[in-house]
Amino acid sequence: MSPTTWGWLVLLFPLLGTIAIGLGFRTYSRAAGVIGTAAIFLAFVCSVGALIALLGRAGAHREVVSSLWNYDASAGVDAKLQILVDPISVFMMLVVTGVSTLIHLYSTAYMRSDEGYSRYFAYLNFFVLSMLVLVTGGNFIMLIIGWAFVGAASYLLISFWYRRSTATKAGIKAFVINVLGDVGLVLGTFFIYRHTHTVSFLGSFAAAPHVFHTDSPDLVAGCLLFLVGAFAKSAQVPLHTWLPDAMEGPTPVSSLIHAATMVTAGVYLIVRLHPLFVLAPTAAEVGAIVGCMTLLIAGTIALVVTDIKRVIAYSTMSQIGYMIMGASSGAYVGALFHLMTHAFFKALLFMGAGSVIGAMAGEQSLDRMSGLRKAMPFTFICFLAGGFALSGVAPFAGWLSKDDILGYMNNRGGLYEVLGILGYAGAFLTGAYTFRLIFRTFYGEPCAEARELEHGHLAHAEVHRNPANGEEEDTGVGFPGPEHVIAEREPAMKVAMGILALLAVVGGFVEIPGVDHVLSSFLSSALSGDALAAASHQPSTGAAWIGLIIGTIVGLAGIGVAYRVYISKPGTSAALQARFAALHNFLSHKWYFDELIDVVIVRPALTLGRFAQAVLERVVISGALTGGVTGLVRSGSAAVRRAQTGLLRLYAGAVVLGLTAVVLYFLISAH
Amino acid sequence: MIKNAHAMSALLIAAAHIRGPHIAWAELSPIVLIAAGALIVLLVGLAGSQMVRARVVPALAVVAIAGAMGTEIWRFTYAPQTIVAGALRIDDLALIADLVCAVAALAAVLLSLRARAPRDAGHGEFHALLLFSLMGMAVLVSAQDLITLFLGLELLSIPLYVLCAAEYRREGSLEAGLKYLIIGSVGSATLVYGLALIYGATGQTGFGGIARALATHASGGLLGDPLLLTGIALVVVGFAFKASVAPFHQWTPDVYEGAPTPITAFMATATKAAAIAVFLRFFDFAVTAEHVNWAPAVAALAAVTIIVGNVGALGQGSLKRLLGYSGVAQAGYMLTGLVVGTQLGVSATMFYVVAYLMMNLGAFAVIVHQERVSGSDRMADLAGLGRRSPPLAWSLTIAMLALAGIPGTIGFIGKVQLIHALVNGGYGWLAIVLVVGAMISLGYYLRVVAAVWMTPAEGHGAAAVSGAGAGPLAGTPLGGFAPIAGGSPEADAQAETDGAGAARAGVLERLDPDPELLLVAAVFAALTIVFGVVPGPVFQFVAHAGAVLVGLR
């Protein structure tokens, strides 16, 4: 079969899964999990099929487009239901479906006692479908559709426990910020379309060098607007505030959507549109700088946050900062490589966090956890694997992928070298906050729950409370359910985490400088023709290895600091906190971004909104326009019905009048 | 004696010289099959056994219609042909309209399987009349001649007058038949007067001849000839009657409401398809040279129809009346495709005809069910349908959303095509009227949807509510529409298992829809969605409808 046939099949299975579970979500109980997982697994199989079909073609023929039909082909618009199967999209398909399959598997156990079990899987399948539409779409229209669908799916899943007031608020926040990104994407598309007169990717890319010169104003504007979309979706400063709040969703959702797949859409966007960004270096620099800022800001916040999931969420922001920085600088392969390894180890860390939260009976605060190492050996090992990979320690996956980006940037020189060095500072922070998390959770004196668990009793909360604000949970629809689950006791969770732990260790070996280059040679055909991806920009093997060694040393240094603060000299943390109270306050208020946005945007918008409601809405629209129009239509309706007397003689009269009018018209207006 | 023999042989020789027209049996086969089917059905209807009458007759009718459809599909692959001495033209336009009418007839037979009308009127007679009417449509849509046109129109109409009154013990049915007869006769009279005037002006009865006469005399003044224009005006009015175009629509709600519902379904879809097809053939082929004169008039009629139909439907409590007015509005939409006088317009119109068939038949199947359950077609009786019978409720919902033109349904694609054709043809203002009409139409289509899902059933609802209690909204029978108004999916599911069990076992069991209704409703709802998402096949189906009308832009 051709690659595109496989591509359509990849889309088909999650669609069928969504429909099957969505229509029957009341009738299925356990089956929903099986159907959902099977649908995504089949999509993964088809992604592999697409990969094999693509590999069977020569390098230059690895961009295959297929459209089912035209939505509109008039007036110069070529909106088609179209997919593009090329190395980039196949790579994304594999990552998305592969990680999703494991997370679906994990969810079958984790969500077992939730009342909304089948609704959950319907949403989750819908998310995967949306994400696949996003990454396979062959034109801007499909991209926008997938982009918006993904935002909607994210909203549904963040607010999944809709009786939790914090969850619904977080959902709204995420949705609003994501829609801001959607607007950026749509407007950006318009700027490009204005000049290229096509919405198809390949057509736009082919036309771009002819209609734009380097840094054409419209192109820069378009690319900056694309970046707004990417920043909103990928939680980059200053549009990042929704991501920590999104941790209100079920933990597997955080794992899949807010770590492994959806939030990396911005990276995919920049890589996908690289022929445009190459022509707009100004916009690309903005992307690189914002990515670098995000990786530092998020890294510092992660040092002080005490909610286990939020630490990982800030870490996600920080790691995506690396990817955005890399993709904007031209390290496309590095960005996608890090996207893949990050998907492995970050999904793993979230799964581990889910298991820990299960052991703590729903408690998420690091302050309450300690010494879980003996009680949860499997979770601990997985956490370690994920933690080392995240910190970029040799030979774990994150080591190779992160330094692929940093090595490229240092080699490019100038501004990029500065950003690359700041990236190493970020790596130091990464090691520190990651192992702060691990040391605080798994080391130290075992807490009550850990001791109970060592004796085989899983903690059980009598009254479930919202970890964010202490409100009592509605166990009927607002909580993972009265029973808690830990990986040690659930084969499904164990399998999912085990596979990911393995990948977190060996996943980076596809691309070792001087040894192999599986990923870069696979992606090369999609990136050929891009000056920034040319071999001359790649660091030499020696330079790459020096970078790798520096990277692992920096990561170990971060871990060492964490070790000193939390293990060898406990109490250092409190002392530091007291000494740098102002800094701690600043960081634990997350650099006051929420407050800033509130003052700069939310309050003025509310004032404007109140004015609009009082004047525009009440008086102009509701009063004059709507009232007038409905009044007109109502009286028209009454008139028509009054004419409908049921009396034939009146009908005949109307006919005669109408007939006379028509005949007179013809005779009078003849020419 | 010998003299006589001589005269006789002379006559024979003369007779041999009169050559009858060549009959193209292959092209005529759909008409022949339907006619044969009608006669056989009428004869079988004489059988004494109730079983034979109630079962075999509809089966034979289905066979005849299916056979006709088969031959129509077979003819699709052939080039257009003018047959029977120029009286009929078998081309894509005719075949599409034929197929639409045949599908409508098939659905009408299915819907009337357990209906009262065939029992009252006699199964043989009922089905024979239906088939004759279908045959009239087949003649009408292929008519290439003024005489055939009138013949087809009458063959279509007269059986329908009778069918409307088929439930002759019910006053409403009789009234509908009588009204339709009188108003229909006025329409036919107007039409035949117009045809006569056109013949008088051009000296031709064949459409091709008329078109040629107009083309040759174009400079000589025939274009603005009052005789011809009066004729065209009268023909417009005559067709407008059949397609229920305002202000000649007033019979429509009354007749739709009174007639037996399967017949209403047939009239609403098939008659309209046939009338629109002949509208297209006559105006876009025979008198297309006069486009500049008739187009503004037809555009005005279309605009008036869209507004009157949509506005009139707003306050209706009877579903059949509502669909009657909606049909008026939809006829207005279809006319817009005619106005532009382009191939694009013809294709868009035929696309909409196909879409209209699918959207309406699904809705009528649900109404037939509703009438059997509650004895009336009041919209209020739909309350709780979402809980009683989700498949029917979804079918009706899909039909309504499609008629309103919601994306994802074929109704949306159809409207987009029409708007596309209008904008391309320079009738942007009419496109705006169309959109405004569709906006108004949401006011009544959504009311039906709301009645289906959002209101508790009278009587049964109370049981369900009292049995629940898991949450504040737990008992609300929101059906599958749970997310609306903060309803809670999980709590709802519980309420259903807890409370509705008893009610379901008792009174609701009886209300299970008949399988043939379910079939019709489900099939057409499914097609509405499928072709709304993947309209390619329908596009291909109607693609050549415009091309067969030579002389169009």
Describe this protein with a few key phrases.
heterodimer; A: 671 residues; mainly alpha; 2 domains; two-stranded antiparallel sheet; 26 helices; 71% helix; globular; B: 553 residues; two-stranded antiparallel ribbon
Detailed description of the structure:
The complex is a heterodimer of chains A (671) and B (553). By secondary structure, chain A is an all-alpha fold. Chain A is built from 26 helices and four strands. Chain A has two domains: 413 residues, no CATH class; 77 residues. In chain A, the strands form two sheets. Chain A has a two-stranded antiparallel sheet. A two-stranded antiparallel sheet of chain A has the order 3-4. Chain A is globular. The mean pLDDT of chain A is 86. Chain B is mostly helical and 553 residues long. Chain B has a domain of 56 residues. In chain B, helix 4 packs parallel to helix 15, helix 6 runs antiparallel to helix 7 and helix 8 packs across helix 11. Chain B is globular. About 8% of the residues of chain B have low confidence. Classes of the chains: A mainly alpha (671), B mainly alpha (553). At the A-B interface, strand 1, helix 25 and helix 26 of A face helix 8, helix 10, helix 11, helix 13 and helix 18 of B.
Total of DSSP H or I helical runs spanning 4+ residues of chain B: 23
Radius of gyration of chain A: 28 Å
What is the β-strand count of chain B? 2
The biggest chain-chain interface is: A-B, 39 and 53 residues
In helices, the fraction of residues of chain B equals: over 70%
Strand content of chain B: under 5%
The percentage of residues in β strands of chain A lies in: under 5%
How would the global form of chain A be characterised? globular
Radius of gyration of chain B: 25 Å
Low-confidence stretches of chain B: 459-487, 493-510
Topology order of chain B in helix (H) and strand (E) letters:
HHHEEHHHHHHHHHHHHHHHHHHHH
Q: Give me the side-by-side strand order of the main sheet of chain A.
A: 1-2
Low-confidence stretches of chain A: none
Helix content of chain A: over 70%
Instruction: Supply the number of helical segments of chain A.
Output: 26
* Total count of domains of chain A: 2
Helix/strand class of chain A: mainly alpha
The profile of the biggest β sheet of chain A is: 2 strands, antiparallel
